[in-house]
């Protein structure tokens, strides 16, 4: 009986240890698609923006950002407070609502 009890304790301890080791990798996964800093974008690159998405800080990302997807599939993170970024979002949103 004592052997079964010891085996059970070991199994529970092993399971807890395994879960503790997995936790950091799960937590890190939320940062995969987060912008960590803003890029300085030249005016000529702005014409090649195909789409964008807004990164909020409430989903695990540290900074608010606008993630620009370029026609060549590059992804660039820009500061959403910049005037031209706000104008581009308005322009693209108006274009998308006009197509519906």
UniProtKB/TrEMBL annotation:
<dbReference type="Pfam" id="PF00048">
    <property type="entry name" value="IL8"/>
</dbReference>
<dbReference type="GO" id="GO:0005615">
    <property type="term" value="C:extracellular space"/>
</dbReference>
<keyword id="KW-0732">Signal</keyword>
<dbReference type="GO" id="GO:0008009">
    <property type="term" value="F:chemokine activity"/>
</dbReference>
<keyword id="KW-0202">Cytokine</keyword>
<dbReference type="InterPro" id="IPR039809">
    <property type="entry name" value="Chemokine_b/g/d"/>
</dbReference>
<feature type="domain" description="Chemokine interleukin-8-like">
    <location>
        <begin position="31"/>
        <end position="92"/>
    </location>
</feature>
<dbReference type="InterPro" id="IPR001811">
    <property type="entry name" value="Chemokine_IL8-like_dom"/>
</dbReference>
<dbReference type="GO" id="GO:0006955">
    <property type="term" value="P:immune response"/>
</dbReference>
<feature type="signal peptide">
    <location>
        <begin position="1"/>
        <end position="27"/>
    </location>
</feature>
<dbReference type="InterPro" id="IPR036048">
    <property type="entry name" value="Interleukin_8-like_sf"/>
</dbReference>
<protein>
    <submittedName>
        <fullName>C-C motif chemokine 21-like</fullName>
    </submittedName>
</protein>
């Amino acid at each position: 009986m004592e052997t079964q009890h010891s085996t059970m304790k070991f199994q529970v301890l092993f399971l807890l240890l395994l879960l503790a080791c997995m936790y950091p990798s799960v937590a890190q996964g939320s940062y995969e698609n987060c912008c960590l800093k803003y890029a300085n974008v030249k005016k000529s690159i702005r014409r090649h923006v195909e789409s964008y998405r807004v990164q909020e800080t409430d989903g695990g990302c540290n900074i608010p950002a606008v993630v620009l997807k370029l026609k060549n599939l590059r992804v660039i993170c820009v500061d959403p407070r910049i005037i031209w970024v706000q104008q581009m979002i308005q322009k693209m949103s108006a274009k998308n609502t006009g197509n519906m």
